[in-house]
Structures
1.
Amino acid sequence: MGNKPFGEKKIQSDVSPSYSNSSLQAQKTLAEEPMWDAGTISEREDRIVNFALQRWAIY
């Protein structure tokens, strides 16, 4: 998706790659974000870290 603006990356036609038609769930959730800024990035990082800690917990 390169250097396209976030809005264009979120939703494109079915023939063009976009977050909304990605086969990866982590990218699909990006299509639900209203904007992409430092706060959104930080929140996404927290969700990914929490998922990894729960999924691959080391006791």
Note: The chain has a mean pLDDT of 88.
2.
Amino acid sequence: MKVVIVGGTGFIGRNIAPVLAGGGNTVTILTRSPRATSAVVGGDVHVRKWNPLNGQTSGNPFQGQDAVINLAGASIAERRWTPARKAVLRVSRIETTRMLVTALSHLVAPVRPKILINASGIGFYGLETADAVDEMQGPGTGFLADLCVEWEREAFRAAAYGIRTVCLRISMVLGKDGGAMQKMLLPFKLFLGGPVGQGTQPVSWIHVEDLGRLIAAILRQPSFNGAINAASPHPVTMKEFCRQLGRALGRPSWLPVPAWALQLGLGELSTLLTRGQLVNPFRARQLGFAFTYPDLESALSAILGKHS
């Protein structure tokens, strides 16, 4: 299968591109910086320049491809959500997805891709859910929920052109070389780790390898369609997450970070940590997907190796 990845230079893209290529697919990453990307992903993954927001295009990069995976989007947790930052988050997701689907609409069978897998987030459900939510749940409220609703709306336009469209509502992704784990490790190694806020908020997560395997399953199986929660079947509380991480590292988890301090330092962004969603991967399990790392203990053991 010929697969194009947009936004493939981030933590998720860097991990899944080689896996898909190793599975016999021909994988091409579209990027603003081809030379730097080639150095990161290796020789089995092709790289092509594409920056539609700046008008830097060369032909239609999706022509003749079988599938498109859109992971494009500026980091949600990188900095405070000022009005300017919120605009960046919206443009990098919504405008890029709109231009991508427009490019797909200009193609006709048989050179038009058959599948679009578009990133979304569990922020779709809002930043606080008292009960477990699955794909049947409607959107929550707040900035992230509104962002995800618009993002998915743009992606699902592809279905009108006969393209099977899947929006992956991705939870916190755990892995060795980036993502949330990279930011958590240092304070724990310095004996400064601990739960955020009260610690009772739920944490939904997925191991990056399971995310890659889920994407591969979606590519293979036509039954995957619509919204799919990309989350482990066993979410935990923030307190339990930190306890298990500390144990895996041989470090205590004793120093809580007060919610007011996060609010002071991060503003609205702090709600990502002080609230949480209890997400059920109902559709993935219904369609037969089996998680290699369904529980946090096995995931942390795989990521941290000898420390666990």
Note: The first strand starts at residue 2 and ends at 6.
3.
Amino acid sequence: MGIIKAVAGAVGGGLADSWLEVLEADNMGGTTLMASGVKVRKDKRSSNTKGTDNIVSNGSVIHVYPNQMMILTDNGRIVDYSAEEGTYEVYLSSAPSMFNGELKDAVKETFGRIKYGGTPSSAQHVFFINLQEIKGIKFGTVNPINYFDNFYNAELFLRCHGTYSIKITDPLKFYTECCPRNADRVEVNDIFTQYRSEFLMALQSAINKMAQDGKRISFAMSQTPDLAKHLNDSLDEEWHNTRGFEIVSVAITNLDYDEDSKKLINMRNKGAMLSDPTIREGFVQGSVAAGLEAAGSNTAGAGQAYMAMGMGMQNMGAVSGFSATNAQQMAAQQQAAPAAAANGWNCSCGTVNTGKFCSQCGSPKPAPAGSWKCSCGAENTGKFCSECGSPKPSADWTCQCGATNTGKFCSQCGAKRPE
């Protein structure tokens, strides 16, 4: 039992209308994974004498449209298939033709394991697998996912929501492993309840992998390509090799911290800012001004307002102590700046650096005063080259004309200084 290609590229044409009984896929929406074949025309002269709808009889014609794979079954077992667009005629006495289309040879290998080897019965059906990318499959974490952030040196937790898309890459495997028996149609929500749980487990593994790679949690939204790759790596064997579909893309629409993580991050950020004495002093002065303003606006009357302001002024001694501490630390920072410059070098843009190039503008480190360049290319300040040991060339040299010079050319005759 098998199919024979009758007309290539003439699906829906006048030539295809010459057959008695024609089947094609039932309506396929954007979330349809599998649909049964339905008759678009039924003739009284058809060899299907039992009168059962959608039973494929000898001589029936099947239309296969782009991005579809047609599967011909006998009592639930696959006997032939086609992933090539065209019109096919069914012959119960024909051997399988297996039109592979653009699918990989692995599909033929799958067919070799599940093909039907018995005598054709009276229950032949045709099914169509959607080969388009199935988009918009929603996901969301029920419980926050833990994420150790090296920047904060803390275990944080986040919630993640978004969508992902899949593509059926081995339709035969998908039909045998994922489609419920006797089902005429399979939609995403019919079978992806289980797979969504597996996806979330892989998502947690992928996010933990990002943490191991040292990526900051705040950069996670920009890491969706890496996230999709991690998910593919995690689910490849489980989904592609055993179920015939794989993830194409992942889109994160919302990534947010839980409340405890938000409080921790805000506390750490505030602490980091207040560790700067300049910012801390501004915070102290602003708090004092706000306190005095609140005291002066006392609604109990002018006397109470003056009393509140007086009490506030009495506490200014403690505030002055805070400011004095801040001033000492700011002075220490200013004193430490020249020391840092002494250990490094000052760029013309004002940045203090320790490397060979400015970290702010990229300018090269200037050569130190009194340095000289050896013939090997090394810059030196001593009497001998630190790279090859050659002695520092004498500052004075005598030209052949008898003149003594210090530059690269003779001041008398213009001859170049010998190397």
Note: The longest strand covers residues 154-168.
